[in-house]
Structures are given as structure tokens and as C-alpha cells.
From TrEMBL:
Organism ancestry: Eukaryota, Viridiplantae, Streptophyta, Embryophyta, Tracheophyta
Gene3D superfamilies recorded: 3.40.50.450
Keywords: Allosteric enzyme, ATP-binding, Cytoplasm, Glycolysis, Kinase, Magnesium, Metal-binding, Nucleotide-binding, Transferase
Protein's name in the database: ATP-dependent 6-phosphofructokinase
Pfam family, one: PFK
Gene from which the chain derives: PFK3_2
Activity regulation summary: Allosterically activated by AMP.
Amino acid sequence: MGIESKYQMKVVEGDNGYVLEDVPHLTDYIPHLPTYDNPLQSNPAYSVVKQYFVDMDDTVPQKIVVHKDSPRGLHFRRAGPRQKVYFSSDDVRACIVTCGGLCPGLNTVIREIVHSLDYMYGVDKVLGIEGGYRGFYAKNTINLTPKLVDDIHKRGGTILGTSRGGHDTTKIVDSIQDHGINQVYIIGGDGTQKGAAVIYEEIRRRGLKVVVAGIPKTIDNDIPVIDKSFGFDTAVEEAQRAINAAHVEAQSAENGIGVVKLMGRYSGFIAMYATLASRDVDCCLIPESPFYLEGSGGLFEFVKKSLREDGHMVIVIAEGAGQELLAEENSHARSEQDASGNKLLQDVGLWVSQKIRDHFEKKLKMPITLKYIDPTYMIRAVPSNASDNVYCTILAQSCVHGAMAGYTGFTSGVVNGRQTYIPFNRITEKQNKVVITDRMWARLLSSTNQPSFLSTKDIVEVQKGQHPPTQLLDGDNNDSETSGKQNTSMA
């Protein structure tokens, strides 16, 4: 069934243009809830912390670069432990569910939620919902203990399993009530978070004392507002292996061409950062930047130039790039969707490889050696690297702190290097994309020395100040210059 949210913003306005996009709290709809002293006060691990708890009024700005006369702007609630909690540790019965595609770090997040609940708050009743949202229907659960999850971060995938779709809000909330669950931790992408928002609304409608907290997951790094998504660093690092293999193959043959297809349905962040990190890529093609094959300034001309100058070249292409070219060529292609509502893409890697072969070998009678590599499932199935493991730990701990403090209907995310609680709707309202008029894309073009492939129409629009359709709207902090940066501040 479709997922429709009627999520209502909770906005606090202050002086000088200050706006806090707050997240809901249990007390918004359940008055007179008892509070308890936070167990962290007696936790030896936190005895070294100068300030145990985050001030209730602490917020984090979405935009960190401002002019001297700028208003104070949009803020989110700062994450962290609060002095008072709204759950007695003995009464907490939590559950964790993972949904959507695989991503490095899923097991790390599961592990750290379990460990945080147990070691920091003394919660020992944590259920794992197996098989994504469908697991709520089938009542497939496992008891998650610190001992059980201790080593799972060393494995790829998710020990809970996952699935797409299968979202029946009524059945899910019925199951939550039947199990006596009062904290729900949901790990997944924008579709999953939309589902989490609907689950929160139904729980609120029923007046249940149940927290719904999300941790955003996408290997493509296309979730807005947050600095980056977990698993992205690992994906870029793993993509280097495929690019290196393509470079070795291309360099070892006369007129050698290596083509690597990377993940990126609508956003080309993996392809862009893998290209910048590699330094062996001659051309990077992403969904946000249209390209064409023939004619002056086209891909074929650039390939021919590169082969003449260097004798070989490497092309990286994101899976969502060039789909409009495939659609023009194959008008009978069906617009199928997966269970999450994502359009099933045609294989642009195979298509562009065959187009290059046909052009050079048949049309130009120029012998080439082309090797095509598609590491898609290798990249998303590996365990997370050191950077992502640290990041997952921080996200999970912040999420648990928020849930225990009674916040609900929120996603745990990093904004400008600080842990925050973000309303669901801000995470799901649109997708983050590479801005092709941004400095980061210019850095890539400078690194590869490839043409921009912008059409005459695109160039005229840029000259007139009319940004191409991929330009993000003002107010977005998540431009491509900052999206892939590492932010591991515990604050």
C-alpha cells in the first residue's frame, strides 16, 4: 500500500530570524508523564565527561556559512543525553528493524543500539524484527543481546535481514502493541523513513507511549540536510578496487578502455568522490550532468582524444546516468518499479560499452580493447570501514539518547559536524544531488580534464543565471562540497 504522511512541523521562532525545526516529544500528546533520573549519572564511562547532559535549549544551525548581516537561520535540536528520561530502564522494550537495500554499516548500527541501550541505560529487552517491515506481520523476532551482536560489525549486510515495501501501518502498530514495544528503531532510506513517519502518526493517534526513531541509510548519500550517510565512505573506498582493476586492464592493452558502473540511481556522489579519490579516471558520468555521444564535445570525441594522447582511458558511470538516452533509443522499455517505488533502471554500463565498441570498431575501424566492470553488489555488501564504524557508533548512541529522553518522530543525523534530531519530513521531502554548478563538480572536471558535456541550452541557462534542474534550492546546507566530508564529532 502507498505511504502517505500528514507529518506536522513543530516550529519554534525566536529573535533575529532564528527558527528551530523541532522534533515531537511524547509529552506533546501524553500529558503528565513521569520522569526519571538519567542512569548515565552513575555510569563509570561518563564520569570523565565535564558536562554529563546536553542543555535543553542547545540547537545546531543548518547553514554554517553566513554573512555578517544574515539572520540566525534554521536550526535543529542538538542530540545527546538529557538529565531526565521518560522511561524507566526496566520498563523499556525496544525493537530494531532494517529496511531497503543493503549498505555497509547496518550491522554496526544494530550492534551499537543494543550496546547503548544495555551499557548506558540498563535496558536488556531488545527485539530484532527480521525481514524488514514485513517482519512485523509475520511476527519474526529474535532477542538481541550484547553477546549476540558483539562481532556482527565485522560482517556485511544485516543480521536481521531486509525487504522492500510491505508497509501496512495498522498491522505494524498492532504488532508493536502486541509485543509491548515502547521504543522502535528504524534503519533505512527515504522510503523507510516515510514509513516511519506514518508509523509515528498512527502511534500518536492511538495515544501510545511509544517512541519512533530513525537512522537514515543510503549508500548513494542522497539524503538531504545531513552531512553524509553512513556507508558512503566505505562505498567510495571499495569502488577504488574496481577503478584500479579497470585502469590496469586499460593500461595493459592498446587503445584500452575500462568502464566501471557504480551505484547512484539519482545522485552521482559515489561516482564523483570515487573519481576524485582515484586519480586514474579520465571521465565521470553522473545523473545530474547530461551527456551526449556523438558530435563536437560529445563522449566519443573525448574518448578518441584520450586514446590518441594516452593510449588508454577509464570511464566511471553512475547507474542513473544517461537513462534519457536509453529511453529515446528504446521507446518500448517498460517503466517498472521495485517494491519501494524506485524506477527499475536499464543497464547504462553495458549500453555505453556497446555504443563505444560499435562507434570505434565498426564506424571508425579503430581497434579497441574494452573491459566492463560492475561492482555494484560487491560495494554494498562489504563491512563498513573504520571511518563508517565510528560514524555508525555516534549515530546509534545519539538515537538512543533521544529515545530515552522522550523525543519521537525524529531521525538521528549529523549537521555541520554536530549530532542533531531532525524531523522525518526534512529527511524525506527531496533527494540530495550533486550540484553541477558547485565547486566540487568543478574540481572533478579540473582533475579529469573532461568536457562538461553541457548542451548549448544548458550553457545559455547558466549564463543567464538560470541554474540547471539539478541545482539545489537556497537554504540547503547539503551541497556537494560538504556531502562527503567526514564528521565524527561526538558533540
